[in-house]
Write a structure and sequence with these properties.
By secondary structure, the protein is an all-alpha fold. The chain contains eleven helices and no strands. This is Retrotransposon gag domain-containing protein. It comes from Lactuca virosa. Pfam families: Retrotran_gag_2 (PF14223).
Length: 228
């Protein structure tokens, strides 16, 4: 039987504290005044109460209930609804599509429905769950869909999820931008600076007199003047 999506909580608690007999009725009080049994029974019953909604708690409320009587009532109530619930959940799982959900949210939703089906004795085979997941993907994952479907070894649900998350990260990653550098030889600024320097050097060189035309400070006086 199941208590909604939290059905494992009271069973886990009872197993940890070795009080499962209070659920199935195998642990009996020693006598009508067994205070220790009464205290433990109330404790286990409180664990059950915390797994139920207020409307369900009101429905099964009885005068002076024991843990076992509450558990049996829940078992009968949910057993009647298991078959119809399984059909509804299976249809929901089969028709679930990703839409605008992120891959992690989409897979979490599928896993939650699958767990609910397992709780009502309608477990979904893992290969079927992966197939449902692939069928509901958005068109952005078409290439990954084909890759996974044609793998020699069909992946597990977690393996397929990891592949899809990696693909989603690459799709959503912003494109890389080329860095702008102004200190290399192809930079317009560099060319302009070199061009200006070249023009400046050229103009300065054009105003210089040739070296050979410069007057020599070591030239001797005119021979004619010496003859006088």
């Amino acid at each position: 039987m199941m208590l909604g999506e939290h059905s494992s909580l009271p069973i886990t608690h009872c197993g940890a504290y070795r009080v499962h007999g209070y659920l199935d009725g195998t642990t009996k009080p020693k006598d009508p005044t067994d205070a220790n049994w009464d205290n433990l029974d109330n404790l286990v019953k409180s664990w059950l109460d915390h797994t139920m909604s207020q409307s369900l708690l009101t429905m099964i409320l009885k005068p002076q209930p024991t843990t076992n009587s509450v558990w049996d009532t829940l078992d009968a109530l949910f057993r009647d609804n298991n078959y119809s619930s399984a059909i509804e959940l299976d249809n929901e799982l089969r028709s679930l599509v990703q839409g605008d959900r992120a891959i992690t949210d989409y897979c979490q939703k599928m896993k939650a429905i699958s767990d609910l089906l397992a709780n009502i004795d309608g477990p979904v085979p893992e290969k079927t769950l992966v197939t449902y997941m692939l069928n509901g993907l958005s068109p952005n994952f078409e290439n990954i869909y084909m890759l996974i479907r044609h793998k020699e070894l069909f992946p597990s649900f977690l393996e397929a999820r990891s592949t899809l998350v990696s693909k989603e990260f690459r799709v959503n990653r912003p494109p890389a931008t080329s860095p702008s550098h102004y200190d290399h030889g192809s930079s317009p600024f560099f060319l302009l600076a070199n061009s200006n320097n070249t023009n400046w050097n050229h103009s300065n060189n054009s105003n210089r007199r040739p070296y050979n035309n410069r007057p020599s400070s070591n030239r001797r006086p005119n021979d004619a003047s010496n003859n006088h």
